[in-house]
Design brief:
This protein is an alpha+beta fold. Among the domains are: 161 residues, no CATH class; 399 residues, Glutamine Phosphoribosylpyrophosphate, subunit 1, domain 1 (4-Layer Sandwich). It contains 21 helices and 28 strands. An eleven-stranded mixed β-sheet has the order 1-2-3-8-10-27-26-22-21-18-17. Strand 21 and strand 22 form a beta hairpin. It is globular, with a radius of gyration of 34 Å.
């Protein structure tokens, strides 16, 4: 904002006159002050011209016959004229205010009339359908809104943005997009105008989108926006123009890349983002005012939100949500694994990390898997000492507010009521059934006792009873019981019976690290990352390389620009992955200098200068690789939380492969990890590079991990982005691409998360991409640059959980690739 102050100034002649009357004996400052006083009196006299009265009531001229009567009458007339002018000025101002008020009232009346004149009061739901067909496809958008209120029928939600389809997308398979919005609020009716730009083979329909900010009403409880897409055959070979003015209860949506706006304008979509051969998915965007939670399961996110509503801390909500996920997404995480947590405190402006990764047992040996690599993936030797519960303990000790028992209680309730099987869990069971099918503990949970078939999505499951008993013991005795109490003794007996080399001494000696997170700058923002064994510093380096390109929406405007942007991101990923094998557990290897380099903007500029927009480099050594590593598996779970006080948590947890080692503790019911596979094994790979010496097995050493919980804050210390991902080594590419799209390329959060992904990690040197989501012409442009392309038939290889905050609201998006859930208020 700008302000201007105005005053009355003296003319040049007045100033000259004043200067001549000033005494030469006065100082320059005194002369200036006197001049200002005289100028002020001179301006008053010039404006008023009214004679002053003497103490007797008559001046000398009036005593001498009233020779100045005529001048006095003129002065009185001037005074009255001045008063009339003042009155007129005030009347003009009042008239303008009244006109503005009447205009606003009329406009509001017209809008309300247009929106509700045809809305029957007895109809609780209304759907607005708009169908647009091209020469080969049809896109149908359906919005369904469910609202509840203490007054009449009211809802408050941010309208999803419409996006335009590029020319290269005119042959995209047709999709149906449905949106469901649920709110609980008092009377709030923000108005939204939603329009769409669609180009077909024959004509172009252009409209615009205008969105009012989400309401800032503390009575608003929840807002969910759920998008569901399915294939649909085209019915028409023509374009349809549609412009709809709606409220929050009537939203027209077209295209899959739609999200609540985090910017004042709606950018066009990138080429090929409207194609998706995944016939069944649901991507959830939540818009909240005060707090939000994103996790792999909506019931678990709701538990976290409820903890925040009870004045629990961000860490309280995180722990309660993760305990829930350990039951409902046991294929990916649980108390038998490890975690990395990034915690930001708004009040102090500091971020701490907790490293509760697994460690190698005391009895492990560096060459224990040299002749049997498969033993590092499945079976008792693949189990590392779990750190998950110690991470909960350290976090709750420093940042918790609610009693520990309150954080476990919601999960114990789920043990009684059960939960509905998710699609991701169904797929995970099918994917790994060959190595868990003979385990009776898995059979009880995942097999239908009547048919003998595997349960499918929607089936009511109950967690293993013995795992629920372990939860009860941890609730009663505290989290340290896992390492030196009843649970520790039970777990040690389980591990011994299963053939593991982990002992009670391993559990008792386990510790979790907690220190300040490492920081780097992105423009005016601060990026917080967890140091090794996390790969957060590698992500910081990659983003720093990309920042120098000053990416904008124009870098997705056409296929050539889009191909160049993919190429740049891919090359930056390769430079990051080239240094990753040099990282390891900082308690065993000094990585301070390397981490400092990775967080240095000058180092990023050097790498950026090596990137050629026209071709790839010749091999791993050209990117600076000194050693190699094996590709990580596809497990892991990510979670993000923003609390009402501005604190935030991003955490990633894993048991490594789906269902870890494939083993369950017969006494504890704990699904045990196979994280020993994360250590580097002996030998070299096809690139003739040795295995990473920084990540070899040593006693109680942590293996290097792709887990990278990240936090981004603005200049004022407010959290701007809390993001994490699952998917093994594909985590890095997923976080980088979503962050780049959200921060620089003009996507809002949902569009950034839903956009098609590509992956490159140098080992192997291939560019993987989600099949069916990129046009052939775009892929050819990438091949011309020397990329070895490999399509991925599944979209579940990486899964992002992200929260974004601006001055308007908190936006929470759970990736459709895993069908996670969000909650908040």
């Amino acid at each position: 904002m700008h302000s201007t102050t105005c005053g009355v100034g003296a003319s040049a002649s007045n100033l000259a006159s004043l200067q001549t009357t000033c005494s030469s004996s006065n100082s320059s400052s005194a002369a200036t002050a006197d001049a200002h006083k005289m100028v002020h009196h001179s301006n008053d006299d010039a404006m008023n011209k009214i004679p002053l009265k003497s103490s007797s009531g008559l001046d000398d001229d009036e005593k001498n016959g009233g020779e100045l009567i005529q001048d006095t009458a003129a002065a009185e007339e001037a005074r009255r004229e001045q008063m009339r002018a003042n009155v007129l000025a005030w009347m003009k101002k009042l008239t303008i205010v009244l006109i503005c008020f009447i205009g606003i009232a009329l406009i509001s009346y017209v809008i309300i009339s247009l929106c509700f004149s045809d809305w029957p009061k007895s109809t609780p739901l209304r759907s607005n359908n708009s169908t647009v067909a091209t020469a080969a496809t049809a896109t149908t958008a359906t919005a369904t809104i469910v609202g509840s209120s203490t007054a009449a029928t009211d809802a408050a939600a941010e309208a999803p943005e419409s996006s335009s389809e590029s020319p290269s997308q005119s042959t995209a398979p047709a999709t149906t997009t449905a949106a469901t919005i649920r709110t609980t609020s008092t009377t709030i009716t923000p108005t939204t105008t939603t329009t769409t730009t669609i180009r077909t083979n024959e004509s172009t329909t252009t409209t615009t989108t205008t969105t009012t900010p989400p309401p800032s009403n503390p009575s608003t409880s929840h807002t969910f926006i759920t998008f569901t897409s399915t294939d649909e055959q085209p019915e028409h070979n023509e374009s349809t123009e549609s412009t709809t003015a709606t409220t929050a209860e009537e939203i027209a949506i077209a295209g899959p890349a739609i999200a609540a706006s985090t910017s004042p304008t709606t950018p066009p979509p990138s080429p090929a983002t409207n194609v998706d051969n995944n016939k069944e998915f649901s991507s959830t965007l939540g818009v909240f005012e005060n707090a939000a939670v994103c996790s792999d399961m909506q019931p678990c996110s709701q538990i976290g939100s409820d903890i925040l509503a009870r004045n629990g801390s961000a860490v309280d909500a995180t722990i309660a949500t993760m305990l829930c996920n350990g039951l409902l997404t046991s294929q990916s995480m649980g108390i038998g694994g490890g975690l990395l947590m990034n915690i930001y405190e708004r009040e102090t402006g500091q971020s701490h990390y907790i490293d509760a990764q697994v460690v190698a047992p005391y009895a492990s040996k560096q060459n224990m898997f040299d002749d049997n690599y498969n033993a590092s993936i499945v079976g008792p030797l693949s189990i590392a000492v779990p750190g998950e519960v110690m991470g909960y303990h350290r976090a709750h000790q420093k940042f918790g507010k609610l009693p520990w028992q309150d954080l476990v209680a919601p999960s114990l309730k789920l043990c009684e009521t059960g939960y509905q099987m998710s699609k991701h869990q169904e797929n995970s069971v099918r994917r790994t059934w060959s190595h868990i099918k003979d385990n009776p503990h898995y059979q009880v949970v995942f097999l239908n006792a009547e048919t003998g078939e595997q349960h499918v999505e929607g089936a009511l499951l109950k967690p293993p009873a013995k795992l629920c008993n372990t939860y009860q013991l941890l609730s009663d005795n505290g989290p340290m019981d896992f390492y030196n109490g009843t649970v520790a003794k039970m777990l040690a007996e389980d591990l011994n019976e299963l053939g593991s080399i982990i002992t009670l001494d391993d559990l008792a000696a386990y510790t979790a690290e907690m220190r300040l997170s490492i920081t780097s700058t992105l423009g005016k923002d601060t990026l917080y990352a967890v140091p090794p064994v996390s790969s957060g510093s590698v992500i910081s380096h990659i983003l720093s390389i990309l920042e120098g390109y000053n990416l904008t929406r124009a870098d997705l405007a056409d296929e050539e620009s889009y191909a160049r942007t993919i190429h740049r991101i891919t090359e930056a990923l390769k430079f990051g992955f080239a240094r990753r094998p040099e990282l390891g557990d900082p308690r065993f290897i000094d990585v301070r200098e390397l981490v400092s380099q990775l967080n240095n903007p000058d180092s990023a500029a050097e790498q950026r200068a090596k990137i050629n927009d026209s071709y790839v480099l010749s091999g791993p050594q050209e990117y600076g690789a000194l050693s190699s590593y094996e590709e990580d598996p596809y497990g892991t779970s990510a979670l993000s939380v923003i609390a009402p006080n501005g604190d935030a948590v991003s955490v990633t947890s894993s048991i490594n492969y789906y269902f870890g080692s494939g083993l369950i503790g017969p006494r504890t019911g704990i699904i045990l990890n196979d994280c020993m596979a994360d250590f580097a094994m002996k030998g070299s790979n096809q690139f003739k590079l040795p295995a990473s010496p920084a990540n070899t097995i040593e006693l109680h050493k942590r293996p290097m991990s792709s887990q990278s919980p990240m936090l981004l804050t603005d200049q004022e210390g407010n959290v701007r982005l809390a993001i994490g991902a699952a998917g093994g080594s594909k985590i890095l590419a997923a976080i980088v691409e979503v962050a780049a799209r959200y921060l620089w390329l003009g996507d809002d959060l949902k569009a950034a998360v839903d956009a098609p992904r590509f992956y490159s990690q140098l080992f192997p040197d291939t560019l993987e991409y989600e099949d069916g989501k990129y046009s052939e012409s775009l892929l050819q442009l990438l091949q011309k640059r020397g990329h070895n392309l490999l399509p991925l038939k599944t979209t579940t290889d990486s899964v992002v959980c992200a929260l974004a905050r601006n001055a308007t609201a908190i936006y929470a998006n759970a990736d459709y690739r895993k069908r996670g859930g969000v909650a908040g208020f």
